[in-house]
Amino acid sequence: MADDLAPAASLQAWWGMHQEIDTLIITPRDMGRIDAAAAASGLASYGLMERAGQAVAAAALRRFPGAHRFVVLCGPGNNGGDGYVAARALEAAGAEVAVHALGDPSALRGDAAIALRHFGGAPRALAEYGPRPGDVVVDALFGAGLSRDLPDEAVQVVEAVRRHALPVLAVDLPSGIDGRTGEVRGAAFEAVATVTFMCRKPGHLLLPGRTLSGDVEVFDIGIPGRILAVHAGHVRVNTPYVWRLAEPQQTGATHKYVRGHLAVFSGPATATGAARLSAAAGLRAGAGLVTVLSPTDALFANAARLTGVMLKDVDGEADLAALLEDERLKTFVLGPGFGDAGRARAYAGLIAAKGRRLVLDADGISAFRDTPDALFGLFAGGDTRLVLTPHDGEFARLFPDLAGDGTLSKIDRAQKAAARSHAAVILKGADTVIAAPDGRALVNENAPPWLATAGSGDVLAGIVGAHLTQGMPAFEAAASAVWRHGEAGSIAGKGLTAEDLPEAIPPWPAA
Ligand SMILES: NC(=O)C1=CN([C@@H]2O[C@H](COP(=O)(O)OP(=O)(O)OC[C@H]3O[C@@H](n4cnc5c(N)ncnc54)[C@H](O)[C@@H]3O)[C@@H](O)[C@H]2O)[C@@H](O)CC1
Ligand SMILES: Nc1ncnc2c1ncn2[C@@H]1O[C@H](COP(=O)(O)OP(=O)(O)O)[C@@H](O)[C@H]1O
Ligand SMILES: [K+]
After folding, report:
1. Is 6 domain-assigned?
2. Ligand 1 centroid vs 209 CA: distance in angstroms?
């Protein structure tokens, strides 16, 4: 099955309702199209560079009032051009400025050559830069145009600046970060802050670029929003803006079955806790009823620890088939602590055949490691009814080729996996990516590091299940679950355990 993404034109309309510019994530390739469209619309490109460089200088002066000297490192392209504008503005503000260029400045073309001419000074060679205490480095070596590993000369400066622990303000991206993937190309500056233009790029949100970018300031250099919106792809930051219209509505007529019934499969007697975490999270996240479906040997272990969550004996396919006769049971969570791979495959098959919705997590994902296509076939066609919640290790079991392809970004991997599996995919981590089969993708950024604790993923699976069973479309259900999970992590605070998370799931944000 082809992985090529051909987002429907109607998607543009879907995003049309969600065009807040600060949620757009623009790849360097999108940015190229945006530049071309801006130029075609009559916008003077040098004006954009001038505003970009001025914004960098303003940020440098504001952030580093005690700097002895600003050292502006300029590269061979337009990122360097921004650097020359910034150097001129810093000098005009009375600061001490040193400019060092990578390569021959007389080879600059276009707007960058104009910026150098306006600067008027003669840059010194990059290799001549000797770090001094009190220096603030303005990194304008490479931005969106980085296409291969940093040259040795630049690597040496990156290392010298790190050795001297000098603060770095990056222009657009820290040099060495690939704007499309967030990966380090050979070496990269670690910036205190990065000033970028119009929108953030994947490299600002995906690790390790997210960490190396420091605080990211987005400065509007004057490209009209309508041009951005038309040429932006289908990647956004995961904020309530993109799914708030799909939030479950509660009216006076709501009763618990309207809010949906969620079922969570328990593992054997020695591994029941994960399912209860999912179930507790599901109830707190808004499912009207939640039932743990337990193998017979684990009934007592579960019964002793459940209150608001119900319990039912389901010990094999016949039991599940009988249960599926109840039309009100719409959504299942399968995988947390589940253990039995053969039974997981059989249960997924029954659930799919009956047209129900499934969150497949943990052991449920691993159960299909030898037969991923069989899983994808179960949920092909019709609305998206499957949500997969892999961490990197589980992802590699279902999608070994995508996991092993070093040219793909985490966003690309999630998008291709979603298209192939007909599932909404939550590819977890500190930079969780949520993708839909139609090509939409979101990068999450509200999760605190202390969410990385045993059982945290089980809680997430339960929240997704609760959202699905309340009728949200799969992608929106998944994205909003990741966001609420991140908020719960912040509310529960440092030192949390997974048991604290369900209690901390916040109400829906005000629409
Ligand atoms: N409309 C826009 O998009 C604007 C872009 N601006 C700046 O323009 C930048 C992009 O400019 P460019 O496309 O010129 O790209 P860069 O300035 O990032 O890179 C310059 C050139 O370096 C070469 N190169 C790439 N990797 C290299 C490596 N490892 N070693 C040696 N040479 C390498 C490539 O030929 C590339 O075109 C942005 O990052 C931003 O700073 C700003 O001027 C504001 C306006
Ligand atoms: N460094 C981090 N910062 C924020 N969130 C993280 C980080 N590492 C992991 N997470 C989140 O914590 C959860 C861990 O889930 P998972 O890997 O399934 O662990 P478990 O199986 O122990 O629950 C996921 O939601 C993941 O996105
Ligand atoms: K840079």
Report:
1. no
2. 17
Contacts of residue 494, Cβ cutoff 8 Å, sequence gap at least 6: 448, 450
Which residue, 360, 351, 290, is CA-closest to 320? 351
Q: Using a 6 Å CB cutoff, which residues line ligand 2?
A: 362, 391, 428-430, 432, 447-449, 451-452, 454-458, 460, 485
Reply yes or no on whether the pLDDT at 291 is more than 80: yes
Percent of the chain past pLDDT 90, that is, above it, reads 89
Domain end marker among 193, 223, 253:
223
Q: 65 lies in a domain?
A: yes
Which pLDDT belongs to residue 11?
A: 60
Structure tokens at 327: 């039309």
**What residue owns the CA closest to ligand 1's atom 37?**
145
Looking at the structure of the chain, the number of domains it has is 2
Range of 123's domain?
A: 39-223
ipTM (interface predicted TM): 0.96
How do residues 450-468 score in pLDDT, each as one tens digit? 999 999 999 999 999 999 9
Q: What is the pTM of this model?
A: 0.95
Question: If DSSP codes are grouped into helix, strand and coil, which group holds residue 137?
Answer: strand
The reported pLDDT for the residue numbered 61 is 98
What is the CATH classification number for the domain harbouring 131? 3.40.50.10260
CA distances from 186 to 80, 145, 166, 189, 211 (A): 19, 15, 20, 11, 16
Q: What is the pLDDT of residue 180?
A: 97
Query: Cα–Cα distance between 208 and 147 in angstroms, integer?
Result: 17
From 162, 194, 223, the end of a domain falls on 223
Element (H, E) at 439: none
Q: Which ligand 2 atom minimizes the distance to the CA of 448?
A: 4
pLDDT digits (tens, 9 = 90+) for 237-257: 999 988 988 888 876 666 666
The number of the ligand 2 atom at minimal distance from the alpha carbon of 460 is 25
The CA distance from 269 to 277, in Å, is 15
Q: Which helix (DSSP H) or strand (DSSP E) does residue 69 occupy?
A: strand 69-74
Helices (H), 448-499: 456-469, 474-492
Do 275 and 398 fall into the same domain?
yes
By the CB criterion, residues less than 5 angstroms from ion ligand 3 are 139, 143, 170-171, 175
Asked if residue 291 and residue 163 are part of one domain, the reply reads no
What tens digit of pLDDT does each residue of 159-183 get?
Answer: 999 999 999 999 999 999 999 999 9
Closest ligand relative to 153 C-alpha? 1
In percent, the amount of the chain with pLDDT more than 70 equals 95
d(C-alpha 144, C-alpha 171), whole Å: 10
Cα 489 → chain centroid: 17
Q: What is the DSSP letter of 102?
A: S
CATH number of the domain where residue 462 is located: 3.40.1190.20
Question: Do residues 192 and 338 share a domain?
Answer: no
